[in-house]
Design goal:
Length: 475
């Protein structure tokens, strides 16, 4: 905790209102912009206006004096100052915890989860935690979060909550949005990693060059080691920033970490793992060659973190993919997989993966695209699905404020006219039922795009939507 007066000395305000001596002498525990997560001792940031239904008598940080009889501290540059407050109030956790982070278009959630599983197997006493698309995972509890990389006030509150639960090491996803907006500033990373770069978020970044520059910002926040995917054509933009560097590859023996696949089955891979020239014959219980890349990334991050090879090898047989990442729907006669693939590259990788692990099966794929997001990727996804899958069903994803039918038409423009096994079904639940009806012993179904999500955002309304349950309820 810090005394409020000390914070005001460190961060002089533009002005104050109703700030009495007893308030100045009070202890400040934390800072938040969400009234629903406000607790006693927190300072509450009012970015837009006075929050409704205030609990207790909080001190407000405001951009200008607002209609509130309680104490107010006014800052012209509220976004930056509130982040600096969060960093200052969270110094103990930031000092005592170790942080690892990964950036890239695809694979972040899987790498973070594999890192956490590795750490739990090696350093269980440190109560390893993770934070990203799948939420805050700490001490066997999962707390949903609104963004892949949280806004600074939410981010530091989650770090503090993990710290209070006993966590002393955390793996984070670093999104391009979060990096571009400086959300991770104030955190020193012991290890940072880069997975890959492909078409995504160009509605926000405007160009691949800008997207690439945002990703590279992570390595400027890193005082320790970097782990880089040598197989990505963009790797040169990330390599060489850190002195201590581990390169991983599925293709090149020049990499520090390399895998040679010996056999592939529905249970995973039999491989030769090369670690700085040392050879190990192991089984990896994950589907998808791109998940071998994710495995190498996570493995490399732990090696860069100082974990001995002999400590990591016994953990490998117990590894599993996170929810919604090549997740097999259990308890069904039909063969169905759920995956978050929502970019052209991710969709192609996932279909190719299933073709490799199930070479005798026809691949049926059901997907849509998010509304009010990158429109350029839609026909590309349609084209790739037609090239790789036997049957396509286009449907809704999170259409948000766009018309689902128009989104489907955009995807359809990439599908060749001579591709006959195409259906467009606006309602996703109806589409899933239709897809399941079309399955037999020689085919499998990929439900792509939703992954771990348990909702649909359609026309401004967010509804509960669990693809697993829809599949299990199918008759």
């Amino acid at each position: 905790m810090r005394v409020l007066g000390e914070m005001l000395e460190q961060f002089p305000p533009s002005s104050t209102n109703n700030l009495h001596k007893e308030v100045i002498d009070s202890q400040v525990k934390g800072i938040t912009h969400r009234n629903d997560r406000f607790s006693e001792g927190d300072v509450l940031v009012a970015f837009r206006s006075t929050p409704e239904s205030l609990q207790g008598n909080p001190v407000l940080l405001c951009r200008e004096k607002c209609d509130w009889a309680g104490p107010q501290i006014i800052y012209d540059n509220l976004e930056n100052i509130s982040r600096e407050w969060a960093v200052a109030l969270n110094q103990q956790a930031l000092h005592e915890m170790k942080f690892l982070a990964v950036t890239g278009t695809n694979g972040k959630s899987t790498v973070v989860e594999l890192c956490r599983q590795f750490l739990c197997g090696v350093y269980a006493n440190l109560k390893p935690s993770s934070l990203g698309t799948l939420g805050l995972v700490c001490a066997d509890k999962v707390q949903e979060t609104p963004n892949t990389t949280l806004l600074p006030l939410d981010l530091h509150k989650c770090i503090r909550e993990a710290y209070d639960e006993g966590s002393r090491v955390m793996c984070l996803e670093a999104s391009s949005h979060g990096l571009a907006e400086g959300r991770l500033e104030g955190i020193d990373f012991a290890v940072s990693a880069f997975t890959n770069l492909s078409h995504d978020h160009l509605d926000y970044h405007k160009s691949m060059a800008e997207y690439q520059q945002a990703k590279a910002k992570l390595f400027k926040l890193t005082k320790g080691a970097a782990v880089i995917n040598m197989d990505c054509s963009y790797m040169s933009s990330f390599a060489g920033i850190q002195e201590n560097e581990i390169l991983y590859s599925l293709k090149s023996r020049d990499a520090s970490l390399n895998i040679e696949v010996i056999a592939c089955s529905a249970d995973g891979f039999e491989v030769i793992l090369m670690d700085d020239g040392e050879m190990h014959h192991i089984d990896i219980p994950l589907l998808g060659r791109y998940n071998l890349e994710n495995f190498l990334c996570a493995f490399g991050m732990l090696r860069a973190f100082g974990v001995e090879l002999e400590s990591l090898l016994p953990v490998i047989p117990s590894l599993s993919l996170p929810k919604g990442r090549l997740e097999k729907v259990k308890g069904m006669e039909q063969l169905v997989y759920i995956d978050y693939a929502h970019t052209p590259d991710a969709l192609a990788r996932t279909i190719k993966c299933l073709k490799e692990h199930y070479p005798e099966k026809e691949i049926h794929v059901l997907f849509g695209c998010g509304g009010e997001r990158d429109q350029e990727k839609r026909p590309k996804m349609g084209q790739l699905a037609a090239e790789l899958a036997h049957k396509i069903i286009l449907t809704s994803d999170n259409s948000r404020g766009e018309e689902t039918t128009e989104i489907m038409e955009s995807i359809k423009r990439g599908v060749p006219e001579n591709f006959k096994n195409l259906k467009c079904i606006r309602d996703r639940e109806e589409a899933i039922s239709c897809a399941l009806k079309g399955l037999n012993q020689s085919s499998l179904l990929l439900l792509a795009g939703k992954g771990h999500e348990l909702y649909q955002d359609i026309a401004g309304k967010v509804n509960v939507f669990d693809e697993r349950q829809i599949c299990l309820n199918y008759r």
